[in-house]
TrEMBL record:
The lineage of its organism: unclassified sequences, metagenomes, ecological metagenomes. Signal peptide: none annotated. This is Hydrolase TatD. PANTHER family: HYDROLASE TATD. It comes from marine sediment metagenome.
Length: 126
């Protein structure tokens, strides 16, 4: 059997388990940017994560025979308003990358106005 995983956090599993998925028939996967990120305190931290997903995670999956694609997002938790604004400015360029197939993970967890504004801003970019 061959299959595709539309939501696989390769950054949260080790290479042994990723290799097992490949051996079980995983041919392609979409790696989402997490909606919560421990230690997120600056825009640079998030931009570094996006670069890691697009470089290391995609290449690591490819080395095991898995075609990997990425979705990107700005988590509501952790960033200052300035950090959010910086990431919103940079996100359109990242979305042009050939391995980016969408926006995610995004959503409403607590439903306060700042979270809703960020959600709407990301939907506009999508």
């Amino acid at each position: 059997m061959r299959f595709i995983d539309p939501h696989l956090h390769t950054d949260m599993i080790d290479d042994v388990n990723l290799e097992k998925l490949a051996m079980a028939g995983l041919e392609a996967a979409v790696i989402p940017s997490p909606h919560m990120l421990k230690g997120l305190s600056s825009a640079e931290t998030l931009l570094r994560l996006w670069r890691r997903l697009l470089d290391f995670e995609v290449k690591s999956a490819k080395s095991m025979g898995i075609e990997a694609y990425v979705t990107l997002s700005i988590p509501f938790y952790g960033l200052t308003l300035d950090g959010v604004e910086q990431c919103l400015k940079e996100l359109p360029e990242y979305l042009k990358h050939e391995r980016v197939v969408g926006m995610g993970e995004i959503g409403l967890d607590v439903g306060i106005e700042d979270e809703a504004k960020l959600f709407r801003a990301q939907l506009k970019l999508a």
